[in-house]
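Hi R.,

As promised on Friday, here is the backbone we talked about, encoded as structure tokens. Could you run it through your design pipeline when you get a chance and send me back a sequence?
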């Protein structure tokens, strides 16, 4: 049944994406940039509905009151699957991402992200790329936007040892805005290495912001400590509340390190 539901979800998910991009393109590019956010935000909401109805996966968000009221901050979520790329968009007013320049060349998709003034980075340029990214990020932050950046850079399996990149410390130091950590484990339900999607319930925990003013090294240590502590708590809670889940080896190893009895591997 899980395999069948996963196939149905994946087909409907991508059909939903393509249909919306094609049918809503005229509206998206006619209205103002901020108004056009209704297209990706409604798409995200429809994906949550599809996950709930087809797969049986639900989630709840804790700590929305930790989001700074003036709307200027860096959001720093754990990154485990494609789910967390779009999932929080409905709760953010005007976010932007730093993304690979190559993505801007994808027909239609590249036009969509260009309109939202996402910040492309040429990773082959190294130091020059970071300077250009910082200039653009400062300009967008100055207009009251929220930067979404994944501190570990790429998707990581649930329970994997932390691998935070120093780039977020540089952004924190130079942009001088709060950083809001986010812990969650969507990768247990939408794994990165399979097309299977698993039913169950999990929490997204938005943690108190780390205010500006720390030196970069102290900030990074603080970010890792608070995010990983919350991540461990949620890993234990999620696994206990969803005993049917097939756990990746990284989650099993971390649970054992935390002294939690791990179910037999199926």
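Update: got your reply. Pasting your designed sequence below so it's all in one thread:
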């Amino acid at each position: 049944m899980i395999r069948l539901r996963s196939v149905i979800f994946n087909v409907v998910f991508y059909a939903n994406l393509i249909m919306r991009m094609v049918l809503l393109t005229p509206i998206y590019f006619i209205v103002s940039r901020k108004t056009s956010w209704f297209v990706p935000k409604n798409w995200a909401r429809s994906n949550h509905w599809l996950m709930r109805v087809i797969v049986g996966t639900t989630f709840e968000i804790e700590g929305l009151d930790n989001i700074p009221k003036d709307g200027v901050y860096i959001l720093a979520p754990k990154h485990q699957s494609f789910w967390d790329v779009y999932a929080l968009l409905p709760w953010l007013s005007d976010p932007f991402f730093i993304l690979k320049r190559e993505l801007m060349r994808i027909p239609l998709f590249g036009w969509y992200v260009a309109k939202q003034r996402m910040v492309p980075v040429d990773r082959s340029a190294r130091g020059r790329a970071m300077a250009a990214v910082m200039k653009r990020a400062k300009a967008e932050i100055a207009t009251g936007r929220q930067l979404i950046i994944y501190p570990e850079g790429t998707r990581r399996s649930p329970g994997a040892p932390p691998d935070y990149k120093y780039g977020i410390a540089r952004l924190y130091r130079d942009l001088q805005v709060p950083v809001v950590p986010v812990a969650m484990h969507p990768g247990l339900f939408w794994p990165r290495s399979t097309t299977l999607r698993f039913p169950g319930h999990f929490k997204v925990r938005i943690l108190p912001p780390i205010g500006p003013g720390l030196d970069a090294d102290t900030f990074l240590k603080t970010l890792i400590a608070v995010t990983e502590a919350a991540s461990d708590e949620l890993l234990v809670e999620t696994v206990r509340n969803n005993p049917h889940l097939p756990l990746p080896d990284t989650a099993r190893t971390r649970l054992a390190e935390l002294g939690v009895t791990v179910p037999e591997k199926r």
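One thing I noticed while checking it: DSSP finds nine helices and seven strands in the chain.

Thanks again,
M.
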